[in-house]
Each structure stands twice: as structure tokens, then as C-alpha cells.
Design a protein that fits this description.
The chain is mainly β and about 375 residues long. Helices cover about 5% and strands about 15% of the residues.
Length: about 375
């Protein structure tokens, strides 16, 4: 398709050069514009005929049609479905074309009917057979959807096509391969949340571990973040961390001035609680509450928290963009496609889900779908 679009642009330039060369007259309607008219003009833009790559014979030129008043033209390819055609061009330059046509014109209407992002009223108007919110889509992960049938994978989550795998964004179990959408709105093997999943404290009932501390599932061990005593195995929460309730100098016990002390004793190793970097043997206190070395997989908020310099979905990663289209995300820098929209990765191509014009490569977002 890219080849055809580029060659049509070249032919359009050649037609305009012919217009100048021929005293402001465009070539007449023809099935062989290159051989009949365009290779002979000076200065020469094309030296040999250009052939439509979608015609199987390999020797059929792009088609050319001129309006009856001689002022407007369209050059076109039959497109990937080999059925495209410009059926008419009016004396005001309005092009009428069938689904799949790829064209160039000095008039209006050559917006690749049937291609992703083009306007549609039903699937019959689209090459893929999918029309969502008035635009053709491919149904691939990251594309706009309204129901599971709009997606090639069969899973539509929050207007976004995903693969329904564990960790995918979801609203109901019907959007997940596992059939389970947990309370964090992610596909899961278990309705309860795994460690480090977001949860609603002080209730512990949503976590597999049985402990929800600081709005994240934890194991409730000494040093774990907490907001209440029930978030801790020891039953004692002090200074937003679980402690053993003793004052014997052991890890997790209360303290006031130990070597690694932030209201409770710790060894300062990775994973231990902290309030300043001085509390950690490695010299780094992530988010003022847990010692971390910034290795891949460690918790992070910014790239500065990671040895690699990449923080992806709040975990240190080897590279910045690792998440495929349709994957749950928090920031565009985490997505291989370059866009994080409604907590799902997309590539911003025509047909992708969007909220704003900046979510689309085309800069055109209509009814939450990228248009041409």
C-alpha cells in the first residue's frame, strides 16, 4: 500500500507538470496515463510507466479519470482487494470510489475508502469487515472496539482490543481468556490479587496474601507498608510499616537511633523499610519507604530509580518500550507503539482507540477512534 501511495503522489506531480507543459490542459481519461502522456513531458518526472502493484498481471498501469469539464482528475489503484475503482469525479472535484480504492486527486474524496480509519456506516464499507464508531478498524490489539466481536482476538477491554491474557485490562471476565477479571481490572487466574497489586486498604479481603497495606497487596511481614494493625502478620503497624511490637533491637522492632532506623530496626538490605537513603545499605530508599538497588524488576516511579534508566509500569526494565499493543500501561514511554491510551498500549495508527488528537498519528480523533 505504501508503494502505491508513493507512486500515485509521483504520478500526481507528473500530471500537474503535463498541465503546465500542455498549456493548462490535463490528459483525458485513460487506462495508460504514463505511457500515453506522462513519460514524454519535459522536464521529465517519470521515464517509464508505473504499474499498479495490486494487479496480478504486473503490467497494468494506474487508472486515470478526468471530469467532464477538464478541471479535476483522479489517479487510482485497485487496492489490496483488487476491486477498487473511481466511479466518477464531478465538475466540482468530488471523487466517488468503491471500497479499497487508493487514489490521488486535485479534487476531494481520495481518503482510501475501506482502509483503516476511513469513514464507514457498516462493516460492508471496510476491507476488514469491521466498522467501529463510524471508522474502519483492523481489529488488532490496540484498535478501537465496542464489543468482543470487533476484535480479531475476541477480547474488547475498555474500548481497546487486547489478547485477554493474564494482566490485560478488563471490565468483566468475558474480556479475559481465564474468564476472571479481578478487582484491579486485570485478567487473572484468581479473583484475588497477587502481591504488589493495587488494593483498597484497610480491607485485606481482595489480596491472595490476606494483607493489603498502603493500597498494595503485601505479605504483611515486618517492614511491609501498612495503614492499620490488621495489615500486618504481627498485628502491629507503626509509622506506616509493620513491626514486631518489641524493643529488643531485632529487625522490625521499635527503635529511636539505630544505624538503620526509621522508627523501627532494619538491616538496610533491599526490601527493608526506610525513610531516607541513609537507612539503606545500598544507599537508595525508593519512594521513602523501601530499600532498593534499582535492578530490573525493582519498584520505581521515575527512570532515576533504576540502574537501567528505564521505569516501565512502575518497575525497572532493561529497555524503555517493552509493552505490546493492547497491553495494560501507565505511560506512553512504556509502549512499543508509542501511545498509552485509556491504560492500554496502541501505535496511534488509523483505527486505534484515542481520547485526544495527540493520541493519533493522523492527529484526527473522532468518537474515540483515530481517523484518516
Amino acid at each position: 500500500m505504501v508503494k502505491a501511495q508513493k507512486e500515485l503522489t509521483t504520478l500526481e506531480s507528473a500530471v500537474e507538470e503535463y498541465y503546465t507543459f500542455s498549456n493548462n490542459i490535463y490528459p483525458p481519461t485513460t487506462s495508460a496515463p504514463s505511457a500515453s502522456y506522462l513519460v514524454n513531458i519535459q522536464p521529465q518526472i517519470i521515464s517509464t510507466p508505473l504499474y499498479d502493484p495490486f494487479v496480478s498481471s504486473g503490467n497494468a498501469e494506474y487508472q486515470y479519470i478526468l471530469s467532464s469539464n477538464g478541471k479535476y482528475y483522479a489517479i487510482y489503484s485497485v487496492g489490496v482487494n483488487q476491486q477498487g475503482a473511481v466511479t466518477n469525479i464531478t465538475n466540482s472535484g468530488a471523487v466517488s470510489a468503491t471500497v479499497g480504492t487508493i487514489c490521488a486527486t486535485n479534487g476531494t474524496g481520495c481518503n482510501a475508502p475501506g482502509q483503516n480509519g476511513s469513514t464507514c456506516s457498516s462493516g460492508a464499507n471496510c476491507l476488514t469487515g469491521r466498522c467501529v464508531s463510524g471508522a474502519c478498524t483492523s481489529g488488532l490489539n490496540g484498535q478501537r472496539c465496542g464489543s468482543n466481536s470487533d476484535c480479531a482476538s475476541g477480547y474488547c477491554n475498555s474500548l481497546l482490543c487486547t489478547d485477554g491474557s493474564i494482566g490485560s485490562w478488563c471490565y468483566t471476565g468475558a474480556s479475559c481468556q481465564s474468564g476472571i477479571c479481578n478487582s484491579a481490572a486485570q485478567c487473572s487466574l484468581n479473583s484475588l490479587l497477587p502481591l504488589e497489586s493495587a488494593c483498597t486498604a484497610p480491607s485485606n479481603s481482595s489480596c491472595q496474601s490476606g494483607y493489603c497495606g498502603g493500597y498494595m497487596c503485601s505479605d504483611g511481614s515486618n517492614g511491609s507498608y501498612c495503614i492499620g494493625n490488621t495489615n500486618c502478620q504481627s498485628g502491629v503497624c507503626r509509622g506506616s510499616h509493620c513491626i514486631n511490637g518489641l524493643s529488643d533491637g531485632s529487625n522490625g522492632s521499635s527503635c529511636t537511633n539505630n544505624g538503620q532506623c526509621s522508627g523501627y530496626c532494619s538491616s538496610g538490605v533491599n526490601g527493608d523499610p526506610c525513610s531516607t537513603s541513609a537507612d539503606c545499605a545500598g544507599g537508595h530508599c525508593y519512594n521513602n519507604w523501601i530499600c532498593s538497588d534499582g535492578a530490573n524488576g525493582a519498584a520505581c516511579q521515575t527512570a532515576a530509580d533504576c540502574q537501567s534508566g528505564f521505569c516501565v509500569s512502575y518497575q525497572c526494565a532493561a529497555t524503555g518500550a517493552t509493552l505490546a499493543n493492547g497491553t495494560h500501561c501507565y505511560q506512553s514511554a512504556s509502549c512499543t507503539g508509542g501511545y498509552c491510551v485509556m491504560n492500554g498500549c496502541t501505535d496511534g495508527s488509523n483505527g486505534s482507540v484515542c481520547r485526544f488528537a495527540t493520541d493519533c498519528r493522523s492527529g484526527n480523533c473522532v468518537s474515540n477512534v483515530c481517523h484518516v
